[in-house]
Structures are given as C-alpha cells and as structure tokens.
C-alpha cells in the first residue's frame, strides 16, 4: 500500500472551529472528492434493522420494488 500525504498535496485541508481541536472540519478538493466517490456513484446502501434478513430475501424484496 502506498501512503500519500493528501494535506501536503493540497487535496485536503483541515481547520478547527474557533481554534478548538475537538471541532475539526475537513475540506476536500472537489475533483478529488469526485474521484473518491466515482466507484460508488450507483451504489445502494441499505441499513438492515432486522438482523434476521438474509441476502437472498433482501435481494428478492429489492427486486420487487
């Protein structure tokens, strides 16, 4: 794995609200953000509230909508 310092490259900037280090804000370069999200552009994220739902059941229910 190759490590890259994104702050050094200017792709990410971190600042703190009112100088408070517990209130960090991360600013991501628009082009870099689009690159990061591109593999997930058409992904569907589902939070299962019932842990008893199996993959096949979920797949079937999603195909019915």
What does this structure look like?
This protein is of the alpha+beta class. It has one domain (12-63). The chain is 26% helix and 15% strand. The chain contains 2 helices and 2 strands. The chain has helices at residues 30-37, 55-63, and strands spanning 12-16, 24-28. Strands 1-2 form a two-stranded antiparallel sheet. The longest helix has 9 residues, at 55-63. The chain is elongated. The relative contact order is 0.11. The model has no long low-confidence stretch (mean pLDDT 89).
Task: Summarize the helices and strands and which ones pair or pack.
Blueprint: E1 12-16, E2 24-28, H1 30-37, H2 55-63
Antiparallel strand pairs: 1-2
Structural descriptors:
single chain, alpha+beta, elongated, 65 residues, two-stranded antiparallel ribbon
Global mean pLDDT: 89
The fraction of residues assigned to DSSP E strands is 15-25%
Helix percent band: 25-40%
**In angstroms, what is the radius of gyration?**
19 Å
Rounded to the nearest angstrom, the distance between the terminal CA atoms is 40 Å
Report the count of strand segments.
2
> DSSP helix count?
2
- Helix and strand pattern: EEHH
Query: How many domains is the backbone divided into?
Result: 1
Shape category: elongated
Q: Largest sheet, described in full?
A: 2 strands, antiparallel
Strand order of the biggest β-sheet: 1-2
| Structural class by helix and strand composition | alpha+beta
Low-confidence stretches: none
């Amino acid at each position: 794995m190759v490590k890259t310092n994104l702050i050094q490259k200017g792709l990410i900037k971190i600042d703190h609200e009112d100088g408070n280090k517990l209130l960090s804000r991360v600013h991501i370069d628009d082009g870099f953000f689009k690159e990061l999200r591109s593999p997930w552009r058409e992904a569907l994220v589902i939070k299962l509230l019932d842990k008893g739902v199996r993959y096949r059941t979920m797949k079937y229910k999603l195909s019915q909508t």
